[in-house]
Specification:
With 222 residues, this protein is an alpha/beta fold. The protein contains eight helices and six strands; from the N terminus they run H-H-E-E-H-E-H-H-H-E-E-E-H-H. The chain is globular. The chain starts with a helix and ends in a 24-residue tail after the last helix.
């Protein structure tokens, strides 16, 4: 093969590789579109973090983005109390309940199952941040079919900057840890993570619900 031909072949191969890396398959919303859920029951979350307050922090911030997306969300405080009155005190126990039973008790079309992978403030010598990472899936309580799944993360360290060398970094990390603890910043970060989880207009976000003016419209990929 002549040298120009070799360069031509390499160019084509590199272009194909770059195109493949840049192309992301669109999210498959066929199950969600077919199901058309109108109401969502938010299940008590699984908690893989060491923070016992994580489920309460995440639940306190999940209703707003779901409601803004156009869904009716069963009041989380009332559903939590219902679970407790029936002897269900953990996310693990709640998420093992049969779909048909949840449908019978709460009457919702679908249920959102949350998994908290990280929550809280960590201090690591020259950095400190509150980080919340969530996984979620939406299940049709009428059929048991999974309609959607997603994940999101947020950190209080986003857009932070520090100056002053090593001493400045240490002081900034210590100050951030104090502020995160005093202000319970993890709850604020959980709000951002929940917004990103549901985020309409982003690839993989939850489609607009029937109460949204955008209901039925295609979501633009990121």
């Amino acid at each position: 093969m002549r040298l120009p031909d070799i360069f031509k072949s390499l160019t084509i191969a590199m272009a194909a590789a770059l195109t493949g890396c840049a192309t992301t398959a669109p999210y498959d919303y066929s199950a969600l579109r077919a199901s058309k859920p109108r109401s969502i029951l938010v299940m008590p979350p699984l908690n893989q973090s060491p923070e016992v307050t994580a489920p309460a922090g995440v639940l306190s911030q999940i209703t707003l983005p779901l409601a803004e997306a156009g869904y009716y969300v069963l009041p989380v405080a009332a559903t939590e109390e219902m679970f407790r009155q029936n002897g269900i005190h953990s996310g693990e126990d709640a998420q093992e309940l049969p779909f048909s039973k949840l449908r019978q008790i709460f009457g919702a079309d679908s249920a959102l199952y949350l998994n908290i992978r990280s929550y809280g403030t960590s201090y690591a010598v020259i950095s400190s941040a509150s980080v919340v990472t969530l996984d979620a899936k939406l299940v049709d309580l009428r059929t048991g079919a999974q309609l959607w799944n997603g994940s999101a993360t947020a950190s209080s360290a986003e857009n932070q900057s520090s100056s002053g060398g090593l001493v400045g970094l240490l002081m900034t990390a210590l100050l951030n840890q104090i502020l995160d603890t005093v202000n319970e910043r993890s709850v604020q970060v959980a709000s951002i993570a929940n917004q990103r989880l549901v985020a309409q207009g982003l690839r993989g976000g939850l489609l607009p619900g029937p109460r949204s003016p955008d209901y039925g419209k295609e979501m633009q990929p990121r």
